[in-house]
Amino acid sequence: MPELPEVETIRRQLAPHLEGRVLERLEIPDARWCAPVGPADLGEALQGRRIERLSRRGKYFIFELEDEVFLLVHLRMTGTLLLDCAPDTPYQRVIFTLDDGHVLRFCDPRRFGTGELALGAEALEAFFAGRLGIEPLGPELTGARLRALARGRRAPIKAFLLDQRHIAGVGNIYADEALFRARIHPLRPAGKLTVTQCAALAEAVQVTLAAGIDAGGSTIDDFRHPDGVSGSFQNEFLVHLRRGEPCHTCGTTVIKMVAAGRGTYVCESCQPRPRVRRRP
Ligand SMILES: [Zn+2]
């Protein structure tokens, strides 16, 4: 599933091709993509408008069109945006034709990807207010802010990190990697992190996401860049997908467990398991 670094990688590649271009035609063969808005209505709102900017919030792409018309695109599990791919590429859900003849296609075998419309800056803000927390790459994510968000929460820190309403954009891969860097066990209750651990985790989230972006994202499952090239962050994983291999820091065998319902990789020497208090 694409996470923030994968989405940001795609955004950086697409932005120079999209920004300043007019969206001439929008075809949506799969109406589920934009439901409950119908494909014709969405086309009417967007066609003929210039794309002023392609930005990102969490794992959402924001197509910023003229007159504060915003298209919010989410890749979900298997969605991808391909520029000028072969016209018979399978699983095409949406086709954007630009005024310079280039064609962007949203392909998605599992069809969970979405496109949603926001009219006006207020609608855009309202859309994200209920869905996304702080943007991890900006100045907002500090140890103190993380501690304030986690205060009183008994959920494991891994579940806390995956909840987009706290921090936007962190998914399974980057949560495992950040927790390892911060030497925090994924099952530790979020509200029990110390000041030092919160500071370490805030930094680890930022370092991990930045490293992911530098590597062009991770290529596992179906992730591809708009030009079909793959990212390489999977070659730099410290613990994720490394079950049975020695920890790079201490040599202990990396194990796989379930946390927050997800396959989770951990070195239990570097990331000590929280002590369970037994009832008498
Ligand atoms: Zn270790």
Structure overview:
This protein is α+β, with helices and mostly antiparallel strands. It folds into 2 domains: 4-129, MutM-like, N-terminal (N-terminal domain of MutM-like DNA repair proteins, Alpha-Beta Barrel); 143-266, Helicase, Ruva Protein, domain 3 (Orthogonal Bundle), CATH 1.10.8. It is 27% helix and 20% strand. It contains 7 helices and 10 strands. It has helices at residues 4-18, 39-46, 121-129, 143-150, 157-162, 172-181, 195-214; strands at 23-27, 51-57, 60-65, 69-74, 80-83, 92-98, 103-107, 114-119, 255-259, 262-266. Helix 1 (4-18) crosses helix 7 (195-214), helix 4 crosses helix 7 (195-214) and helix 6 (172-181) packs across helix 7. The radius of gyration is 20 Å and the shape is elongated. Bound molecules: zinc ion. Residues 247, 249-250, 252, 267, 269-270 line the site of zinc ion.
Low-confidence stretches: none
Strand content: 15-25%
CATH class of the largest domain: Alpha Beta
Give a quick account of the main beta sheet: strands, pairing sense, barrel closure. 4 strands, antiparallel
Helix content: 25-40%
Strand segment count: 10
Overall structural domain count: 2
* Through-space gap between termini: 43 Å
> Which hetero ligands occur in this complex?
zinc ion
Strand order of the largest sheet: 1-6-7-5
Mean pLDDT: 94
Characteristic key phrases:
Helicase, Ruva Protein, domain 3; four-stranded antiparallel β-sheet; N-terminal domain of MutM-like DNA repair proteins; 280 residues; binds zinc ion; alpha+beta
Blueprint (SSEs and pairs):
Blueprint: H1 4-18, E1 23-27, H2 39-46, E2 51-57, E3 60-65, E4 69-74, E5 80-83, E6 92-98, E7 103-107, E8 114-119, H3 121-129, H4 143-150, H5 157-162, H6 172-181, H7 195-214, E9 255-259, E10 262-266
Antiparallel strand pairs: 1-6, 2-3, 3-4, 4-8, 5-7, 6-7, 9-10
Bound molecules: zinc ion.
